[in-house]
Write a structure and sequence with these properties.
The chain is mainly α. It is built from 6 helices and 4 strands; from the N terminus they run H-E-H-H-E-H-E-E-H-H. The strands form 2 sheets. The protein has a two-stranded parallel sheet with strand order 1-2. Strands 3-4 form a two-stranded antiparallel ribbon. Helix 2 packs across helix 3. The C terminus is likely disordered. The structure holds a DNA duplex (13 and 13 nucleotides).
DNA sequence: ACCGTGACGGTAT
DNA sequence: TATACCGCCACGG
């Protein structure tokens, strides 16, 4: 990934509103980078802490948290999401939560934002 | 250059 | 619903 690509990814993540989430793949597409979901995780890992990105609002396509359950990062992500009113149980955004809005995609940014 | 690895995703069992 | 598999792509050893 080029530094420019990383910056595009960071910009997309920075724009996710509180209480909303996006999948890695969705972030990649929104950044205009195609199927590079894995690189999104890589870009976030490489992101300067000073950017203070809302990295916790990025989940897997099925709504689950990508970190190992019980890990420091995992717990931190759950805490931050709940603090924004997002229901998380068993390491993932509940299907019930997504049900209020049809499916995970409704929790994500649509192509129009 | 080769190969394993991972903050992933979609399909098939 | 939960696994298993395989495709993907950049990194690091």
């Amino acid at each position: 990934m080029t530094p420019a690509a990383h910056r595009r990814i960071w910009r997309v993540v920075a724009a996710i509103p509180p209480g909303r989430v996006m999948s890695y793949g969705q972030v990649a597409r929104c950044a205009g980078l195609g199927r590079v979901a894995r690189q999104v995780g890589q870009a976030l890992r490489a992101a300067p802490a000073a950017l203070d990105l809302p990295w916790h609002r990025v989940l897997r396509a099925d709504g689950s948290i990508a970190f190992p359950p019980g890990s420091r990062a995992f717990n931190q992500q759950v805490r931050r999401l709940r603090a924004e009113g997002v229901t998380v149980m068993h390491g993932r955004v509940t299907r019930r939560e997504a049900a209020g809005r049809p499916d995970l995609d409704r929790l994500l940014w649509g192509p129009g934002g």
